[in-house]
Amino acid sequence: MTDDSFHVFDTTLRDGAQREGINLRVTDKLAIAKLLDEFGVGFIEGGWPGANPKDTEFFERARTELDLRHAQLTAFGATRRAGVAAAEDPQVAALRDSGAPVVTLVAKSDDRHVELALRTSLDENIAMIADTVAHLRDSGQRVFLDCEHFFDGYLHNPAYATRVVSAAAEAGADVVVLCDTNGGMLPDDITRIVGEVAQATGARLGMHAQDDSGCAVANTLAAVNAGATHVQCTANGYGERVGNANLFAVVPALVLKRDMDVLPEGCLREMTRVSQAIAEIVNIAPSTHQPYVGVSAFAHKAGLHASAIKIDPDLYQHTDPALVGNDMRMLVSDMAGRASIELKARELGFDLSNDRDLVGRMVERVKDLELAGYSFEAADASLELLLREELGEPVRYFDVESWRAIVEHHSDNSHLSEATVKLHVKGERVIASAEGNGPVNALDRALRSAMEGVYTALANVHLSDYKVRILEGSSGTAAITRVLIDFTDGHSDWTTVGVGENVIEASWIALQQAITYGLLRQGYPSLQA
Amino acid sequence: MTDDSFHVFDTTLRDGAQREGINLRVTDKLAIAKLLDEFGVGFIEGGWPGANPKDTEFFERARTELDLRHAQLTAFGATRRAGVAAAEDPQVAALRDSGAPVVTLVAKSDDRHVELALRTSLDENIAMIADTVAHLRDSGQRVFLDCEHFFDGYLHNPAYATRVVSAAAEAGADVVVLCDTNGGMLPDDITRIVGEVAQATGARLGMHAQDDSGCAVANTLAAVNAGATHVQCTANGYGERVGNANLFAVVPALVLKRDMDVLPEGCLREMTRVSQAIAEIVNIAPSTHQPYVGVSAFAHKAGLHASAIKIDPDLYQHTDPALVGNDMRMLVSDMAGRASIELKARELGFDLSNDRDLVGRMVERVKDLELAGYSFEAADASLELLLREELGEPVRYFDVESWRAIVEHHSDNSHLSEATVKLHVKGERVIASAEGNGPVNALDRALRSAMEGVYTALANVHLSDYKVRILEGSSGTAAITRVLIDFTDGHSDWTTVGVGENVIEASWIALQQAITYGLLRQGYPSLQA
C-alpha cells in the first residue's frame, strides 16, 4: 500500500473528458473509475457535482455502485462567487453535499484572469479562496486547491501567484496544485518555478500539466524533482486540446526509473490492460505508439538487432515490458507470426508445437483476414473458431439459408425493426421472424427463436456489448465496417468480429459466431459436416 | 537564413521510416524531402545508400530531381567492418560515392553492444570510428557521428562512452550525436550526462532521442540546454516503437519559447501544412491531438473559459496558432455555456450578443441533446440547423411520411440492400426506392431519387465519410448509436449527427440533415412552415 506522502491523482473523468470527441455517459464514468482503482491511483476526480446533471448523477450512483479498493473519490468545483458567503453559495453547497471525502477547488492565480475573467479584485479572489477552503474543511472534507494558469501568472506577477498559494495553504488546503493550464511551459521553467514557490511558501505542492508543448510528462516529472508530491494526470493523456500529462507515462517513470513506490503492490502490471480497456470505453482506438502500453511500444523490426536481442533483450529495451503488462513483439519475420499463433493456440488450449504446417496455414489465414479488415486482438472467440476449423474440427450448429432485416419509420414517427432468418437446424428447415429495438437485436432474436427448441441452453447466453468501427477505405473504395460483439453467459465473456461493406452484414457475421461459440461453451456437440 | 551554429537535422526518411506501418516508395521520399525543405530544416537524412535498392535509387534521383533551397542531403551508414581498411569496405564506399555532401555514421558507444552485438574489441571499435571518419573527411565529405545507445552505455561505462566521443571528434567528425536509442532516459539524466560529456570532450554535441518514456521532446530540449547545438528529429515523431523526437514540437519550442533563430524566416508558418502533407504521404491519419499542428491543438471546449476567450485569447493559448499555421476553434459541448454558443454562432454568421433569451434556449437544447447522446463538436451543420430553428427560420425542403430499409442475405450468398422513402416535396407526395451497397447508401439514393427532379443541384453534394459510435451497451439497457456523416460539395465539407437506438435510425437523422444542409448551401430557399 502507498501512504499519503505522494499522491497519484487522476482527473480522466473531469479534465480528460474535455478531450474533443469524448462524451462519457454515467455508466462509462463508473466503469472507468473502477479501472483506475484497479490501477491503484490514490484519487479519482469524478466531475463537478451540481454543474451538470450527468456529474450529479455520477456522484449519487458512486455512493452505492462504486466499491473502491485504493482510491478516494474527489469532487471538482470552484471557489465561492465574489461577495457571497461560502456557506450560502449553492455551487459550494453542492460540493459539500456531494458525499466526496475530498474536494478539489479551482481558483485563479493569474492576476490578469482575476481581473478580466473573474472580474473581481485581487483581494476578493484571495478571500474567496480562503473562505471556501475553510468552509469545506470545517464541513469535514479534505481540500486540494488547483491554481489555474499558475505558471503564466507567476511569470507575469510572481508576488500575486505566490500569495494565492500561501492563502490556500494557510486556510487549510492540504495540497496546492500548480497548473500549467495553457500547457506552454518547458521543463526548465517548471523546475525553477516550483522550486521557488516551494521555498517561498513551504506549502505542499502538486502539478497539473497540459501537453500543448509536448512536454506534459516531462513537466510533471520536473515538478516532482523540484519537490511536488502530488501529480494530476489522465488515462492515456486524454484532455482538452492536446491533452493532459499521461498517467501511464508519469507513473511508470516514477516507479521504474526513480524507484518511487507510488502504486500499490502489483498494480503496475495492470497498466496495459487498464489503458486499453479505458480506450475501449471512451471509444478512441488505443494509440499503437503510446509509451509503455502501445502494441508497438516494444515491437522490434527484425534485422540488424534480431540476433543480439536473443542474447540479451535488455540491451534493446528501456524496461521489461512484462512489468507494465505489455509484451515484446518481433515484426515482419514469419517466425514471429508463427510463434504468436502457437502462443495464442496454447492460451486457448491447443498445443501446435509439433504441427508446422497447421501453424503456417493459420498465419496465412490470419494475415489474409487482417488485410481484409478483421482484427483478432480482442476477438478470441472468432480466432478459436478459425483454429478449430484449421484443426479439422469445425464448430457448426446450424446452416444459414438466408436472412433479412427491415427497419421502418412510420408516418406516426414510430419505428419497427424486424428480421427473418431461414436456417437448417439438425436437418430441419426453420423459418423465424422477430422484432427488436434495432436490426441487430431483431436478427439476434430471430436466430434464438429458430433454435431455442433444439438448443435450450441458448437462453443462458446473451449479447452484452456491440462496437462498430469504420475502417477508412482509401480514396474511391467503399469503407469497410468492422463490428465487435461481446457475449456473456454470466460467468465468462467472449468476443467475435465481423467485417463487411455494410454494418448489418458485418454484424450478422459476428452475431452468428458469438452464438456458435456460446453453444460450444454450453457443451453442445458440433454437428457433423 | 540560419547559419551553421545550430543544426535542425531531420531523419524522417531514415529513422522515421522504421515506424510500424510506414512503407515509403522512392517518390514518397522525394516528396517528403521537398516538404521538409519547405519547412526549412538544415539537414535531411535520406537513407542508407547501398544498404537497399530503394535508398540507393533515392540518392541517385535526388541529384537531379531534388532542388533543395535550405537543406543539405545526408547519407546514413555504419563505420567500417572490423579488420578491413575503410577505403576497402564496400559499405563505406557506397557512402563516399553517394553524392551526399554530408554522411552520418552510426557507431557503437556502449561497451556491451561492442562485445555482444558487434563482437569485436573495444579498441578495434575506436579504430573503426576514427578510420571511417578520417576516410570520408579526406574524400571531401562532412561527417556527423551517431553514438548508438550512448546514454545506456555512459551509465554502464562512462569512460568508454566518452572515449568514443573524443575519438570521433579528433578524427574530424563535426558533430558527435548522443543517441538515446532505447528511449528510456528522463530529462534530468540528459541534462547531467550531456553537460558532463561536453565538459570532458569539448566536442560539438548533438541529440537523438527516442520517445519510449514519452519525453523525447523534453530530452532534446534538455540536451540543448546542456550545450547540444544539433537536434535530430522526425516529422510528427514517426519512428521505431513509440517514435522519435517530434520535429514539429522541438522546433517551435526553440523558436517561440527560447527565441532561437533555428529556421529560415517565414518557415514556421508552414508547419501545420507540412505536418499534414507528410501524414498524407505516409498514409497515417494526422493526429488530431498533436501539439501545435493538430486540429484540436487550439480547440476550446470548456464553457468556463469561453467567456474570457472573447476578451483576450492570449490568456488561453500558449502561443498564437497563426505563428505555426494553425487556427483557434471553439467547440460546443455539454460543458459549454452561453459564451461558446455565442462564439460558435458568430463563426456561423449569426450575431446573438443582443439576444440573451435565444442563447439561453440554445444552451438548454444543446445540453438536453448531448445528454441524449448527441455531440455537436464536429457537427457544425446540425448545430446551424438547430440554431436557425431557434431563430424562427427553420430550414425545410421536404417532409418525411415514412421510410424503410431492407438488408437481405440470399441462399446464394449474395446481399441486397434496398430502401423506400415516402416524402412530401413542395406539396407532392413522392415514393421512391433504391438499392445500395448497404442500407444507408440505399436510403441516400432513395432520398435523391425522390427529390432530384425538384432540387437538381442535389447532384453536386454527396456523402464523403460515415462514422458510427456506440455509446452504451452494458447492463441490459439499449445501446445508443451516434452516427456522424460528412458531406461535401467539392468546395466545402459539413458534418451532421444523428442519434438513436438503432444504427439505421441514427443514420437516417444525420443523412436527412446533411441533405437539408446541402440544399441550403446550394442556395435553395426553405419551404414555408
TrEMBL record, chains A, B:
Residues 6-272 form the Pyruvate carboxyltransferase domain. Its EC number is 2.3.3.21. PROSITE patterns: AIPM_HOMOCIT_SYNTH_1 (PS00815), PYR_CT (PS50991). InterPro entries: 2-isopropylmalate_synth_dimer (IPR013709), AIPM/Hcit_synth_CS (IPR002034), Aldolase_TIM (IPR013785), Citramal_synthase (IPR005675), LeuA/HCS_post-cat (IPR054691), LeuA_allosteric_dom_sf (IPR036230), PYR_CT (IPR000891). CDD domains: DRE_TIM_LeuA3. The keyword Manganese does not apply. The keyword Transferase applies. Keywords: Amino-acid biosynthesis, Branched-chain amino acid biosynthesis, Isoleucine biosynthesis, Transferase. Belongs to the alpha-IPM synthase/homocitrate synthase family. This is Citramalate synthase.
